[in-house]
């Protein structure tokens, strides 16, 4: 069954510069089209269900615009004591999130969905979890970090790939999953779907 042709590319359904940078690292041919879905939590929704649902909604919304094309959507959250932390609404919330995370281990979940507009039965929806330990932080350290602005568009109010690398003491699991896209798992899925080499090399393998 042919699920690609010479014009095939991947669409990344995301406005996250981190996801774009991560995917670019795989040297795949892709274009970026952000989704506009509502990312609210549903009552009683578990972390895994939440990230998988949002990843699928993001991918599906954008996929509808691109016939016969693969689309990738993703969603990342931080979870501590069963509480889901998304992106902080303001600096107060960012300080509050960082106080909860300081001196503790938390989980980072990223869900991702790969959907093909012409072959809905081929879709893949997965989630990956990593553990992150953030060192003890004084209120002044938290306030200073929030003032940098970096926490504001990041789940859990920190960026492991940025200034936040100075407060992450250790992680267990996938690093790219924490940044926003588990590349090893995504690459494996693209390989299993038979499009990884094609997306890297263009028509060479078509
Ligand atoms: C924990 C963590 C999250 N993040 C980012 C990744 C995501 O961009 C963001 C989580 O928000 P998301 O809602 O997953 O993504 P987004 O709104 O930025 O982009 P889109 O929905 O269009 O795909 O947090 C980091 O950059 N570094 C980190 O260490």
Automatic annotation (TrEMBL):
CDD domains: Maf. The active site is at residue 75. Transmembrane segments: none annotated. Gene3D superfamilies: 3.90.950.10. GO terms for cellular component: cytoplasm. One of its GO terms (biological process) is nucleotide metabolic process. The record marks 18, 76, 161 as: Important for substrate specificity. One of its GO terms (molecular function) is dTTP diphosphatase activity. Its EC number is 3.6.1.9. It holds the Pfam family Maf. It catalyses: dTTP + H2O = dTMP + diphosphate + H(+); N(7)-methyl-GTP + H2O = N(7)-methyl-GMP + diphosphate + H(+); UTP + H2O = UMP + diphosphate + H(+). The keyword Cytoplasm applies. Its cofactor is a divalent metal cation. Its main location: cytoplasm. Keywords: Cytoplasm, Hydrolase, Nucleotide metabolism. Belongs to the Maf family. YhdE subfamily. Belongs to the Maf family. YceF subfamily. This is dTTP/UTP pyrophosphatase. It comes from Desulfomonile tiedjei (strain ATCC 49306 / DSM 6799 / DCB-1).
């Amino acid at each position: 069954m042919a699920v690609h042709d010479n014009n095939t590319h991947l669409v990344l359904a995301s406005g996250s510069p981190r996801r774009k940078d991560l995917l670019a690292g795989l040297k795949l041919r892709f274009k970026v089209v952000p989704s506009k879905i509502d990312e609210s939590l549903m009552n009683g929704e578990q972390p895994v269900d939440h990230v998988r649902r949002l990843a699928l909604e993001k991918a599906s919304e954008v996929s509808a615009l691109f016939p016969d094309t693969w689309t990738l959507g993703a969603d990342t959250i931080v979870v501590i004591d069963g509480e889901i932390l998304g992106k902080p609404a303001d600096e107060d919330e960012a300080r509050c999130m960082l106080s909860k995370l300081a001196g503790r281990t938390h989980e980072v979940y990223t869900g991702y969905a790969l959907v093909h507009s012409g072959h809905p039965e081929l879709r893949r929806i997965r989630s990956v979890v990593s553990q992150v330990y953030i060192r003890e932080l004084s209120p002044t350290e938290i306030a200073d970090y929030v003032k940098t602005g970096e926490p504001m568009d990041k789940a859990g109010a920190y960026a492991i790939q940025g200034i936040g690398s100075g407060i992450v003491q250790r992680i267990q699991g996938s690093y790219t999953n924490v940044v926003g896209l588990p590349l090893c798992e995504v690459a494996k899925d693209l390989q299993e779907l038979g499009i990884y080499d094609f997306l890297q090399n263009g028509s060479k393998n078509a």
